[in-house]
Each structure stands twice: as C-alpha cells, then as structure tokens.
Amino acid sequence: MNSRQDGGSNRLDDAARAGWLYYVAGNTQDQIASTLGISRQTAQRLVSLAVSEGLIKVRVDHPIANCLDLAARLRSRFALDLVEVVPSDPNSSSTTIGIAEAAAAEIERRLRSPTPIVMAIGTGRTLKAASEQLPPMECPQHKVVSLTGNISPDGSAAFYNVIFTMADRVKARSFPMPLPVIASSPEEREMLLNQPMIQPTLALAAEADVTFIGIGDLGPKAPLYEDGFISESELKALQKAGGIAEIVGWVFD
C-alpha cells in the first residue's frame, strides 16, 4: 500500500516537473525527455497527467483574457447561451470598434444557414457599423425585418436605420417598418400600428428566429437626442424619471 502511494506521489512529482518544463520553461517534449532521462512518449504522458491532475494553472497575459473571463461570468450569472466581450481601443473615440466586428461575425454565422430564418434588426450606430462589416452574401432564403420605424421627424429616412444596408449586403428579402421612429402621441402610435399594411411586418417581427438590437444611452449625447428624435427638454424629462438607456426607442430605468 505504502509502496503504491509512494509510487503515485513520485509519478505526480515527475508530472509536475514535466509540466513546469513544458508550460513555464517552454521546453519541447524532446527536451523534457532528455532532461528527465525518459522517452518522448513518457514525457508526453507526464505533461498530460499534470494537466488532468490539475497541477497546471494557465494564465493568458493579454487583455482578451479578461474579456473571456468576464464573458464566462456573465454567461453563468444570467444563464445566457452566448456572451462575447470585446476589448476597446484606448486610442480611439469610436464606441463601435470591436463590438461591430463581433456582431457582424455572429450575424454572418446565422445567415450562413441554408435553412430559411427570419432575422429581426434594431437600429443605431453599432448595428449600422456591424452591417457594414458584413461580406457580400447571397441569402435569398432569409428574411430581414426591422423592429423600428425608419422615418425621422423631418420626414427623411433615419440615418442609422440598418435594414436597407444589411439587405443590400446579403441579398435577403427586407421588410422595413414604414413608420416614424417615435410617434407624437399614444393615440397616433395606436393608429399607425393598426394600419393594414403594417400588420404583416409586425407579425413577421414577432416570429423572428433571432433578433439583433443595440442599446442607446440616455446621457448628454443620447442618440435619440443627437439624431433629433427627442428634444432637450424631453431628454431631461426622461433622465429625471430615471431613464438610463433605450432599446429600439423604448426607455428603461
């Protein structure tokens, strides 16, 4: 019994040495074999044993490691299926660098499916930047539907509306929401949403297989304010009421 325990302990000692030589000293398995006086196959098994026994703790010394760790904690904390955290560029004032590329990669992955899907899309700077990162694709089997209106208060097309850019890039059928981004009153909103030509688009959006949205803050440079959808007094009223951000025009606290 003691002989076997001693043998196991010695085996772990050898595994620790092999693991240190491989992961810390950067030795190859041939070098480990030469240093420890064992065969290359034995060196390989010892390194594997060091890993399986939990003797090796790997630390990636790069900002992306913090992103991966934070993503894992967010996924666990909120029971999410997919979380990706990307580093920002400290030398850039852009708020879309990194996140736009990551969003584009996920959108592209979904669109690569041969099975037809309905993709609902919000609006805003990040999604606009993401749509511009998409490669040219041929996706006639898919439908892309907007979650927001696309008309600015002055009657022009909303600049950061995404659906037309995306549909043009991927050659999918597009279903815009031909409405103002924000209605002037609850009564006007109700009237607009009850229009027969709007009902099919609303129904399609409700059946979406996947939805991509952005989050707009309600700080001094709130997109809703900067893009002319709300006035300064309306922004201050939302802030006073506890609003901190919005999703497709819906403010939350």
Instruction: Estimate nothing, just give the exact number of structural domains.
Output: 4
* H/E element order: HHHHHEHEHEHHEEHHEE
Q: How far apart are the first and last residues' alpha carbons, in Å?
A: 65 Å
> What is the CATH fold-level name of the largest domain?
Rossmann fold
Q: Could you tell me the mean pLDDT?
A: 88
Total helices: the number is: 11
CATH architecture of the largest domain: 3-Layer(aba) Sandwich
Oligomer: single chain
Give the SSE layout.
Layout: H1 2-24, H2 29-36, H3 40-52, H4 63-77, H5 99-111, E1 118-121, H6 125-133, E2 143-151, H7 163-170, E3 173-180, H8 186-193, H9 199-206, E4 210-212, E5 216-217, H10 223-226, H11 232-240, E6 245-247, E7 250-252
Parallel strand pairs: 1-2, 1-4, 2-3
Antiparallel strand pairs: 5-6, 6-7
Helix pairs in contact: 1-3, 2-3, 5-6
Can you tag this structure with a few keywords?
alpha/beta; Arc Repressor Mutant, subunit A; 4 domains; four-stranded parallel beta sheet; three-stranded antiparallel beta sheet; disordered N terminus
